[in-house]
Amino acid sequence: MTQQDVAVNWGGKTWSGETAWPQEPSERTYDLAVRLEHGMTHHPAHPPYSYTLVKKHGEHPYPGGISSAMELLTMGAHVGTHVDAPGHISLDGCIYGGRPVAERQTPHAGVEVGSVEELPPLVGPGHLVDGPALFGREMTPADGFGAEELQSWFDNRETPGPGSIVLFRTGWMRYWEDSDRYLGLATGLPGVKLSGARWLTERGVRAVGSDTVNFEHKPHVSVPALDVHVHLLVEQGVPIMESVNLEGLAADGVYEFFFTAAALRIKGGTGSPIRPLAFAR
After folding, report:
1. Which residues neighbour 35 within 8 Å (Cβ) at sequence distance 6 or greater?
2. Which class for 11: exposed (0-12), middle (13-18), buried (19 or more C-beta within 10 A)?
3. Where is the signal peptide (predicted)?
4. pLDDT the model gives residue 143
5. If you average pLDDT over residues 94-110, what whole number do you get?
6. Alpha-carbon distances, residue 145 vs 2, 22, 46, 139, 228 (angstroms)
7. Given a cut of 50, is residue 1 above it in pLDDT?
8. Composition of the chain by helix, strand, coil, percent to 5
9. Cα–Cα dist 236/3, whole Å
10. In the chain, count of helices (H) and strands (E)?
């Protein structure tokens, strides 16, 4: 099954696709999402996350001593740990599958084509590429994951194949609480190069992700870097996950695992918050 085959509005329906389910039970489950909280790091191009407890316990009590509480959440779809849908990026007015999008978008209904409702469940064999382990030191904005680096990393490891999910750790999550440093607004960011993205799509990966806000390599902050987004989202229809917390996996040396995540069913959404999980022996 190709990415084009699953690029249909399957929301509310049944998705049919092959998934290599684990043959043995897992012993550990890793939460790969950052915590959503008021004032958290967010890219200035996207609306921030905000939380308000609008109804507190005791304010409107029910009979018998019962009370309830509830909150109001506001946020951009590309804030925190999230996935980019094909409709997030266009090239020459078209998104994945050569579909024109300019006349198929409205403020309240979003994009009619390429929305997160088209994304299949992100379920399958997971692979971690640990940049600091690969480079033998902490990564810098000058460092990127190209085809050569990926071939070196997977020389003695299980190689990704059709349906795989590949996640990249740069170590940048250590700056999560330092917004400007994490976003690389003055320095740029390490990440996946175009040759690395092509190496992945040649092997039929289902989705990719990283612990940075930008996914792709952005060595110069003043130079736009979207070639990798164009290749993955527009040319290949491969979803991109960003701000994925990979510190737990790396600390335990877990490089192969079973991965699950799914986008929220947002009408016209160009992205969605996710709660990715990794299951390991």
Report:
1. none
2. middle
3. none
4. 98
5. 96
6. 25, 28, 26, 11, 11
7. no
8. 20, 25, 55
9. 7
10. 7, 17
Closest CA to 147 of 155, 156, 139, 136: 155
Tokens matching residue 144:
């990127």
Domains of the chain: 3-11+22-35+77-280 (3.50.30.50)
> Among all chains, which residue has been given the structure tokens 């999910």?
165
Instruction: Write the single-letter amino acid at 192.
Output: V
Q: Roughly what angle, to the nearest 10 degrees, separates helices 194-201 and 147-154?
A: 50
Residues in the chain, how many? 281
Helix ranges (H only) for the chain are 3-6, 131-135, 147-154, 179-183, 194-201, 227-229, 247-251
DSSP string, 120-172: PPEEEEEEEEEHHHHHTS---TT-EE-HHHHHHHHTTSPPP-TT-EEEEE-SG
Give the list of residues 6+ apart from residue 152 with CB closer than 8 angstroms, or none: 134
Query: Who has greater pLDDT, 152 or 8?
Result: 152
Beta bridge partners of 100: 94
In tens, the pLDDT along 205-260 reads: 999 999 999 999 999 988 888 999 999 999 999 999 999 999 999 999 999 999 99
Question: In the structure encoding, which two tokens stand for residue 183, read together?
Answer: 């976003």
Closest CA to 182 of 47, 34, 70, 49: 34
Q: Does the pLDDT value for residue 10 go beyond 80?
A: no
